Amino acid sequence: MTVGAILRTKYLSVVSIGLQATVLDAVKILNYNRIGALLVMEGKAIVGILTERNIIEQLSKRGVMAMYSKVGDAMNANVVACQRRDSVTAVMEKMIRGKCRHLPVQDNDDVVGVISIGDVVKWRVREFESEQESRYIMTA
């Protein structure tokens, strides 16, 4: 199966923020959308990703003042991305190797979604359950 199959099960909305926004702005967007990461974009280009983990790291270093820092100072600029046509197994390997829990999904140069480790796990569980059901039917 491919990342595209996972995307078809999700509400396709790419939530992003700019470099100059504050971490507090980002926290509000994360909370409102009930998500764990924001793509940091300049136009159509991904320049970083800001995750809950990045925010916690900034808070531990700077205290409450971290909330007023710029997203560009808190984000991870080394973004690992995937393509819609990538296999779920390949994406799992990227997440493990890159130690990342959120991957932007691109179709050529366009960002078409974001998948999380939770999306991948749900997909794999459904796949496993379907296989088990098929085996049960074949042996019954």
Short structural summary:
The chain is built from six helices and six strands. The chain has helices spanning 3-7, 23-33, 52-62, 71-74, 88-98, 117-139, and strands at residues 16-17, 37-42, 45-51, 82-83, 102-107, 110-116.
Tell me about this structure.
This protein has 140 residues and is of the alpha/beta class. It has one domain: CBS-domain, CATH 3.10.580.10. 46% of the residues lie in helices and 21% in strands. The strands form two sheets. It has a three-stranded mixed β-sheet. Strands 4-5-6 form a three-stranded mixed β-sheet. The longest helix is centred in the last third of the chain and has 23 residues.
CATH topology: CBS-domain
Gross CATH architecture: Roll
Number of strands: 6
Q: DSSP helix count?
A: 6
Looking at CATH, the homologous superfamily is CBS-domain
Shape: elongated
Spatial arrangement of strands, main beta sheet: 1-2-3
Mean pLDDT: 90
Order of helices and strands: HEHEEHHEHEEH
**CATH top-level class:** Alpha Beta
Which structural class do the helices and strands define? Answer: alpha/beta
Please give the alpha-carbon distance between the first and last residues: 27 Å
Major sheet:
3 strands, mixed
Number of self-contained structural domains: 1
The proportion of residues in beta strands is: 15-25%
